[in-house]
Design brief:
By secondary structure, this protein is of the alpha+beta class. The termini are far apart. The structure holds protoporphyrin IX containing FE. Protoporphyrin IX containing FE (HEM) binds next to helix 15, helix 16 and helix 22.
Length: 475
């Protein structure tokens, strides 16, 4: 009967490599070696927009498919992978799979994460960290023997983790002042690695949990250290002074009106938001600097644009700058930090997507990495070309963004599960890029910042394979 069901499986009609009928091992291998987006992209290039990548998983790379999968109310839910991945005793806004519970939680967060609210309450704090990050880069460059070399990825990561800790916990880690990763972020990184391995290879997690080493416990065990820190978020949420205020104080004001968060929810959401909002922003920014410094003419035009800003400019002024905005959009198209899998379960009863029937139990997964590299949507897709996003200059008309290209642009996901922190992320990207190109005019890529160093490694988010991006600052 099993063989018969296998033979009759409607997924057999979806194109794909033969092995995908029987095994997910090649896919898993690509995940654990940090190659998933590249693996899936190669399969799309060979087999088209619908590819069976595992016995029960189909990768979808069409606008229509993306819209159906991520469209609000279409019945697709986040796959259980999200809860395997986070492995907390209860789900938060990122990992909830039940649409009703998620909608109630998301409603609570909507206003505190709106553009107006983020600017009104947090712009000065974010700006202060960004200015310190750029001045720290300059200071470090001045003290480097014979080179003026700095690793921008390191400083953007410090900046983003300081911003996250201030907003979520109400207490900044002061990583920028210390010049080294905080204990919290170090432990969190290990826990995340363990969760990633555990989600793909549960047996490794089971064995790891039993090993009597601290490192194994940090990777695979529950984490008292992180839990204790989460209590800081609760304490500061309840504090009356404004200096220790965090975003949960704003969220609780919303909670008065309906759905509530208890203390454990706040601890877990704070941790989840730090995970979602730190490396994503830092790595996107790192690629932005790399992409611009790789194009000296573009660099000069951008430096000129931001140099003309008045002193004391605000984020709202930056939003009106055409080149800065185009650079950010083009960075997010090619190097948005979360371009990998967004796995969703098909609704009960199965569904027809673009003529492919996907039965119950199938995971339908989109990757904006692949959608953003479709030549029918973005001519010469591998080219970093800001004219896609600028008003027409007839010479560049062939790159002009089509309506289809606009619809396919999805660096922040889609529908009801799109990025909650999108306005904070854009604000950090704008303020950081403007500050960097105003203060560090004439910066150049260091010899170490090669294509191989910047090759994208993909462990859910993407990061440079060389784990750094060194640039030379002009003194
Ligand atoms: C450039 C930076 C960022 C990028 C490229 C990015 C990208 C994304 C993407 C693609 C998703 C969808 C994930 C999925 O469906 O599995 C997502 C979700 C999410 N992001 Fe971001 N993100 C960024 C920054 C942030 C920041 C700064 C925060 C908050 C502090 C944040 C919080 C979240 C949360 C909470 C979700 C889950 C939303 C839900 O399921 O309702 N992100 N992000």
């Amino acid at each position: 009967r099993t063989i018969l069901n296998g033979v009759r499986n409607p997924l057999n009609k979806v194109p794909g490599p033969l092995y995908a009928l029987f095994t997910n091992l090649p896919l898993k291998l690509s995940v654990i070696t940090g190659r998933r987006v590249h693996f899936v992209h190669t399969l799309h290039l060979k087999y088209g927009p619908y590819v069976r990548i595992a016995p029960d998983e189909v990768a979808v790379n069409s606008i229509q498919g993306f819209r159906q999968i991520h469209g609000i109310g279409n019945g697709f839910t986040k796959s259980p992978w999200y809860q395997d991945m986070v492995l907390t005793d209860r789900p938060g806004v990122f990992s909830m799979t039940d649409p009703k519970r998620h909608a109630a939680r998301r409603k609570l967060f909507a206003r505190p994460f709106s553009k107006t609210h983020i600017r009104e309450h947090w712009e000065p704090a974010v700006r202060e960290r960004i200015e310190l990050a750029v001045s720290s880069m300059r200071k470090e460059a001045a003290s480097t023997m014979g080179g003026c070399i700095v690793d921008v990825m390191k400083w953007w990561t410090f900046m983003a983790s300081d911003v996250s800790s201030k907003l979520m916990f109400g207490e900044c880690f002061h990583t920028l002042e210390r010049g080294e990763v905080s204990d919290y972020m170090r432990v969190l990184a290990n826990v995340l690695k363990g969760a990633g391995i555990g989600a793909e290879l549960p047996v490794v997690r089971q064995v790891g949990k039993m090993l009597p080493f601290q490192a194994a416990q940090e990777f695979f065990g529950g984490n008292e250290f992180l839990d204790a820190y989460g209590k800081t978020a609760v304490k500061n949420m309840k504090a009356s002074g404004s200096s220790s205020r965090n975003i949960f104080a704003n969220i609780m004001a919303e909670a008065e009106k309906g759905e509530r968060l208890d203390d454990r929810d706040v601890e877990l959401e704070a941790m989840g938001l730090i995970v979602a909002g730190t490396d994503t922003t830092a790595f996107s920014l790192t690629y932005l600097i790399y992409a611009v410094l790789s194009r000296p003419r573009l660099q000069q035009q951008l430096e000129d644009e931001v140099a003309a800003l008045p002193e004391g400019y605000r984020d709202a002024d930056l939003e009106a700058l055409p080149l800065l905005s185009a650079v950010i959009e083009e960075t997010l198209r090619l190097y948005g930090a979360a371009p990998g899998m967004l796995p969703r379960m098909v609704p009960s009863g199965g569904i027809d997507l673009d003529g492919h029937f996907l039965p119950d139990g199938t995971t339908a997964t989109t990757h904006s990495y692949c959608l953003h590299r479709d030549p029918n949507l973005y001519p010469e897709p591998e080219e970093f070309n800001v004219s896609r996003w600028l008003a027409s200059t007839s010479a560049d008309d062939k790159y002009r963004l089509s309506e289809a290209g606009k619809h396919a642009f999805s660096p922040f996901g889609g529908g009801s599960r799109s990025c909650l922190g999108v306005h904070l992320a854009y604000m950090e990207l704008r303020l950081s890029a403007a500050e960097f190109f105003r203060v560090c005019r004439g910066a150049r890529l260091a010899p170490s910042a090669t294509a191989a160093c910047m090759e994208m490694e993909n462990y859910f988010i993407i990061s440079p394979a060389g784990h750094k991006c060194e640039v030379i600052l002009k003194q």
